[in-house]
UniProtKB/TrEMBL annotation:
InterPro entries: BglG_antiterminators, Mga_HTH, WH-like_DNA-bd_sf, WH_DNA-bd_sf. Pfam families: Mga. It comes from Tetragenococcus muriaticus 3MR10-3. Residues 51-133 form the Mga helix-turn-helix domain. It comes from the Bacteria. This is Mga helix-turn-helix domain-containing protein. Keywords: Transcription, Transcription regulation.
């Protein structure tokens, strides 16, 4: 990549860009021949081995960063001791202040901030943030202790659930975050408790209350009712319940809680997008399962640790989908926010944007399972050279779409859609192109 393009992309001066590249080169030396950056003053080149993932490098950088160390110090100690922390990080107090200021910009979307050495915000948000961060970085769910195993087994027995290995890792990490935070004096729960009020008679929650009290009795603190509330939301909304366990739970839970009602509304909206006869009950149940987790997280939490490039996902969808799934996803998000009494336009809440991506995933599951092959014939009447070139171009653009079979028009065959530039008498849907190579035409054809 040309160094001018790099500077423009980063918005840095030449000196700052050169310094930044030198730091990256030094950092990547840790990975040896598996990953390298070279720079000759004009071009920056990146190369990696086939078995090397950039995610590995990204995680390594995060874990070694001073900002991550500050967050972990806060989790362990609950309050920053500036003298001790600056000594551990080998930085000045002014540098520590700048890093905390930068962290607060990130924490803002989670409704959190570091103030006077403490993490300030709703306790539900603090635990959610640490869980999301540590899960993404692959930290905090190493070998279980006997006590942790006992708690997980108690949850399984008491709730009559069967946790998969991935779910057990998630629970283990949640328990460890809980252990660090449960002794914090005067935690804030005001907003969380208000939102939780409709769930106080939920059968899963009622079963969970005595289990949490017994399991956490060894802590030298009073176990408040909010602990059971937090664990209920975690179990029901953070990919813990299997689909089978959720199905059994869904038969007992109230359909009138905000999220359960939203699950029903969105599912019905999705079913109306397709032919109801083409969606089997098993597929409908799968969608209901995923929607329940999407809406619980959206209702109770704010912010998200984004692990995917959103725009790249949307671009892939535009390339592969036979219709405008992005438009449907954004429509579903708007309806969900209305039902959950939220604003769909809160730009600081990245969980909204990621929820639209999750709707995309649900719709894609349906799209792939119910779509039949759509046969498209291309019948262009122009100069023979242009006919062949334009036909090949359209075939390349349409063949990448799921379930689309495209070929040059053959009068002896039956088609669902015929693309032409003239009048043609066929028993099929006809689309007349406006001009060769038109992006507008391609967009309309995909609809």
């Amino acid at each position: 990549m040309n160094i001018r393009d790099v500077r423009e992309l980063l918005g840095l001066s030449k000196k700052s860009t050169d310094h930044y590249i030198d730091e990256l080169i030094e950092a990547f030396k840790h990975f040896g021949d598996r990953c390298q950056i070279t720079y000759d003053g004009a071009e920056v080149t990146f190369a990696k081995a086939h078995d090397f993932s950039l995610e590995e490098a990204e995680r390594s950088f995060y874990l070694s960063s001073s900002k991550y160390q500050i967050l972990m110090y806060l989790l362990e100690e609950q309050e920053i001791n500036p003298v001790r922390l600056t000594q551990e990080l080998k930085i000045s107090e002014s540098s520590l202040s700048r890093k905390i200021k930068d962290l607060n910009k990130i924490l803002n979307e989670f409704g959190l901030r570091i103030w006077q050495g403490k993490m300030i915000g709703e306790e539900s948000q603090i635990r959610y943030f640490y869980f999301q961060l540590l899960w993404y970085l692959g930290q905090g769910y190493e070998q279980s202790s006997p006590r942790e195993v006992h708690v997980i087994e108690s949850l399984q027995r008491g709730l009559n659930l069967d946790f998969m290995s991935e779910a057990k890792k998630r629970i283990l990490l949640w328990l460890r975050v809980t252990k660090k935070r449960i002794t914090v004096p005067a935690p804030q729960y005001k907003q969380f408790k208000a939102k939780f009020e409709p769930y106080k008679k939920d059968p899963l929650y009622l079963k969970l209350v005595p289990i949490i009290r017994r399991s956490f009795s060894f802590y030298a603190v009073e176990i408040k009712e909010e602990e059971a509330m937090l664990h209920f939301v975690f179990l029901a909304g953070m990919s813990i319940l299997s689909q089978e366990d959720f199905h059994a739970y869904s038969l007992q839970r109230s359909r009138l809680t905000p999220t359960a009602w939203c699950d029903t509304v969105i599912l019905e909206k999705i079913l109306r997008m397709y032919d109801p006869n083409s969606i089997r009950k098993e597929l409908e149940a799968t969608c209901y399962y995923y929607l329940s987790q999407i809406h619980l997280r959206l209702y109770f939490f704010t912010g998200d640790v984004e692990t995917y490039d959103r725009e790249n996902i949307w671009q892939q969808e535009e390339t592969l989908s036979t219709h405008n799934i992005r438009g449907y996803s954004e429509q579903l998000l708007k309806i969900a926010c209305e039902n959950l009494q939220m604003s769909p336009h809160d730009e600081e809440n990245s969980l909204l944007a990621m929820t639209a991506i999750k709707y995309l995933s649900v719709l894609t599951i349906i799209d792939v399972r119910v779509s039949r092959e759509v046969h498209v014939g291309i019948a262009l009447q122009i100069d023979s050279l242009f006919t062949e070139a334009a036909t090949n171009m359209l075939m390349l653009q349409l063949k990448s779409l799921n379930g689309v079979v495209v070929e040059s028009f053959d009068e002896s065959k039956t088609y669902d859609l015929v693309i032409t530039n003239t009048s043609i008498d066929v028993n099929a849907t006809i689309y007349r192109i406006t001009e060769l190579g038109s992006a507008y035409d391609l967009q309309e054809i995909k609809k």
